[in-house]
Design brief:
352 residues; Chorismate synthase, AroC fold; globular
């Protein structure tokens, strides 16, 4: 297995490198007859693309998607959908000095150890640029699950140790971090401004909420829905931890507090985060992904080269201060891909 494909029924393969001519995705298993145009994908790509916001990289990419196959007269045909996003503002020059040097915190060392050959230009395949292809494919998956009533939204709930104290979705629409707490956003913005001034970076936490998911999605043992969701989010390069529902807090609870009691009208709480025994309960699915600081920092760092000799490097180039909020549509996309796959699996089992 090459590790570039996700899904069993709704299958997505991404391709391309950060400073190559393009990135893209091929979707196999999308049902026929789904209304789909480039405009259905572009909105999510615009949220992820570089050059937007006060704390984003200055790289300028239009990220205009092109649908090359699988759609005819505005509807999917059931055949593979090929999506293309051209790289318009690639600048590999700052990376030439890194041809034989490993950047701390990046995939340079591990790609070299695995393949004995790597694309040093911005990390190549390991670059966050690859996530544009995931977002494009996720937008198609969003349409698939949307027909079943599912809605997936992501929010910034922490940056650099500053977390929200309340959740008001309407407040997320009023700031460029999509933070549902206006007061917390102001403190987060200060942390980001300080990091930019100091030439440093910072991490944060993204919360993804799924409403309208029907009960019964997921498999009983090895393909549990929560396992698939966690695995998909962990497949994003910046994500170092995932929790569902009460998450790590459940380890400090007693069973009487952690259980979600059932009454004729439904559940009285949602510590399970919408998944029990690997199968969706019909409640809101709540996930949180912890994202590490972007490893490209201006400060000098110790490393080694391909011969194992010690080196000191200072990473140049164009980089974000924090992956949030650009990671939000990526997290949404990965959740949409998993839900689309499990929705189609379930329909294959029970029909409909």
């Amino acid at each position: 297995m090459a590790g570039n494909t996700i899904g069993s029924v709704f299958r997505v393969t991404t391709w391309g490198e950060s400073h190559g001519p393009a990135v893209g995705a091929v979707i196999d298993g999308c049902p026929p007859g789904l209304p789909l145009g480039e405009e259905d994908i572009q909105g999510d790509l615009d949220r992820r693309r570089p050059g937007r916001g006060r704390f984003a990289t200055t790289r300028r990419e239009g990220d205009r998607v092109e649908i090359l196959s699988g759609v005819f007269e505005g509807k999917t045909t059931g055949t593979p959908i090929a999506l293309l996003i051209r790289n318009a503002d690639a600048d590999p020059a700052p990376y030439e000095e890194l041809r034989e040097v490993f950047r701390p915190g990046h995939g340079d060392f591990t790609y070299w150890m695995k393949y004995s050959h790597r694309d040093h230009r911005g990390g190549g395949r390991a670059s966050g640029r690859e996530t544009a292809a995931r977002v494009a494919a996720g937008a198609v998956a969003r349409k698939v699950i949307g027909r079943a009533g599912m809605v997936v939204r992501a929010f910034t709930v922490a940056v650099g140790g500053v977390g929200i104290t309340r959740f008001r979705e309407e407040e997320a629409r009023g700031n460029d971090l999509a933070c549902p707490d206006a007061e917390a956003f102001a403190a987060m913005a200060k942390v980001l401004a300080d990091c930019r001034r100091e030439g440093d970076t910072v991490g944060g936490v993204c919360e993804i909420r799924v409403t309208g998911c029907p009960p019964g999605l997921g498999e009983p043992v090895f393909e549990k829905l929560d396992a698939a969701l966690a695995g998909a989010l962990m497949g994003i390069g910046t994500v170092k931890a995932v929790e569902i529902g009460a998450g790590f807090a459940a380890a400090a609870m007693r069973g009487t507090a952690a259980n979600d009691p059932l009454v004729p009208g439904g559940f009285l709480s949602n510590n399970a985060g919408g998944v029990l025994a690997g199968i969706s309960t019909g409640q809101e699915i709540v996930l949180r992904a912890a994202c590490k600081p972007i490893p490209s920092v201006a400060a000098p760092q110790a490393t080694v080269d391909v011969r194992g000799e010690p080196r000191k490097i200072r990473v140049r180039g164009r980089h974000d201060v924090c992956v949030l909020p650009r990671i939000l549509p990526v997290c949404e996309a990965m959740v949409c891909l998993v839900l689309a796959d499990h929705l189609l699996r379930q329909r294959a089992v029970v029909g409909g």
